[in-house]
Amino acid sequence: MSKQYTRSEVVNSNSKEKILIILHDKVYDVLSFLNEHPGGEEILLDHRGKDGSEDFDDVGHSKDAFDLMSKYQVGELIESERSNNAPKLSWTSGYTKDDKNKDQGISQSVLAIIVVVLIAIVYYVYL
Ligand code: HEM
């Protein structure tokens, strides 16, 4: 079983050897990840001791990020202090799938406009 933390334990962990962040009821030590984080070390330091779930979701982390995270997990919140909010869909499924759907939607509506314009031209020219 992984180590159980209370929220105040995470907030008050001033250890130089740890940078604890809560993300979706799990506790991560990102000290060794600071230099590698593509979003920069500053933002991780800003979230030290905090629950960064919402900001993390807002950024929209990819499936790769999600896979990478498990490497830095050091424990989880005790059951009574969990928020039990599932990560946003974009977080677990990644953006690529959504983007593809979006592109398809745009090209379909562009196609529809072209068809309407063509019909209008044919109508005015030949009728
Ligand atoms: C263990 C925790 C974390 C891991 C493993 C992680 C991993 C990553 C990865 C792999 C990326 C590159 C883009 C992607 O693949 O999604 C990224 C970007 C980013 N991350 Fe994190 N991250 C973590 C925590 C956080 C936290 C707590 C924040 C706070 C809001 C954050 C903010 C950002 C930002 C702002 C970017 C840059 C997005 C961009 O430039 O488009 N990350 N992160």
Automatic annotation (TrEMBL):
<comment type="similarity">
    <text>Belongs to the cytochrome b5 family.</text>
</comment>
<dbReference type="InterPro" id="IPR036400">
    <property type="entry name" value="Cyt_B5-like_heme/steroid_sf"/>
</dbReference>
<keyword id="KW-1133">Transmembrane helix</keyword>
<keyword id="KW-0812">Transmembrane</keyword>
<keyword id="KW-0479">Metal-binding</keyword>
<protein>
    <submittedName>
        <fullName>Cytochrome b5</fullName>
    </submittedName>
</protein>
<feature type="compositionally biased region" description="Polar residues">
    <location>
        <begin position="83"/>
        <end position="95"/>
    </location>
</feature>
<dbReference type="GO" id="GO:0020037">
    <property type="term" value="F:heme binding"/>
</dbReference>
<feature type="domain" description="Cytochrome b5 heme-binding">
    <location>
        <begin position="2"/>
        <end position="78"/>
    </location>
</feature>
<dbReference type="InterPro" id="IPR018506">
    <property type="entry name" value="Cyt_B5_heme-BS"/>
</dbReference>
<keyword id="KW-0472">Membrane</keyword>
<keyword id="KW-0408">Iron</keyword>
<dbReference type="GO" id="GO:0016020">
    <property type="term" value="C:membrane"/>
</dbReference>
<feature type="region of interest" description="Disordered">
    <location>
        <begin position="82"/>
        <end position="103"/>
    </location>
</feature>
<keyword id="KW-0349">Heme</keyword>
<dbReference type="GO" id="GO:0046872">
    <property type="term" value="F:metal ion binding"/>
</dbReference>
<dbReference type="InterPro" id="IPR050668">
    <property type="entry name" value="Cytochrome_b5"/>
</dbReference>
<dbReference type="InterPro" id="IPR001199">
    <property type="entry name" value="Cyt_B5-like_heme/steroid-bd"/>
</dbReference>
<dbReference type="Pfam" id="PF00173">
    <property type="entry name" value="Cyt-b5"/>
</dbReference>
<feature type="transmembrane region" description="Helical">
    <location>
        <begin position="106"/>
        <end position="126"/>
    </location>
</feature>
